[in-house]
Amino acid sequence: MAGHSKWANIKRQKAVVDAKRGKTFTQVSRAIIIAARSGVPDPALNFQLRTAIEKAKAAGIPNENIERAIAKGAGTFGGDNTSLEEIRYEGYGPSGVAILIEALTDNRNRTAADLRAAFSKNGGNLGETGCVSWMFQQKGVCVVQNVVDEEQLLEASLEADAESYETSDEIAEVFTEIANLENLSQTLKAKGFSVTDLELRWIPSNSVEVTEPDQARSLLKLIDTLEGLDDVQNVTANFDMNEQLMAASMT
Questions:
Q1: Is domain 85-134+207-249 in CATH 3.30.70.980, yes or no?
Q2: Quick check: 172 and 206 in contact, CB under 8 A?
Q3: Structure pTM?
Q4: For the chain: N or C, fewer Cβ within 10 A?
């Protein structure tokens, strides 16, 4: 799974910008609503909801806002008739890079129009359902901070039936099947590791190397534009780019 952490590093760099424009607040609140709606609205009994709440608290979202989001998802928030649905969109960016977009929306037509405009203005094309999703497989990911003994991490990961892991500095990402994510997280924590984030991530089966500066700038601008849309929860792409070009293209 080499290279997937590079994409995660891009996401972390963008997180600073996202937080400034209130994007994180919207994303996490909607994630709580969906999690509460898809299972019981009790975090003790709903792993997805518990994970969303942890992310909300880490992002500094007040408890009253978290409770309001849970109530909306459970249908107990008076006067709120908003109906959000999860939709996955697919398309191609500059250099033929495959892009998956996960959205939560109360208006499919508006979301599709916004996405189509973002693609067309940045050298890409919004495609039909299924045009790129066959290149991706969804996995559960545990992000572990302050890893000092990689051998211990390997042993704990194997014990928890993880599939693989990647390390960068003192940060590790451990990959597993979605159904095993909670078990993996609990095992790593029991072994003394600092699990700071849990997520579901689309992992590409192949990658497109981007080497041209103009293409790199257009691609990263497209991704940034897509992530800036209110209805978009997550964007994943199958490109590879060296760090120097990436840094130059994000300025």
A1: yes
A2: no
A3: 0.78
A4: C
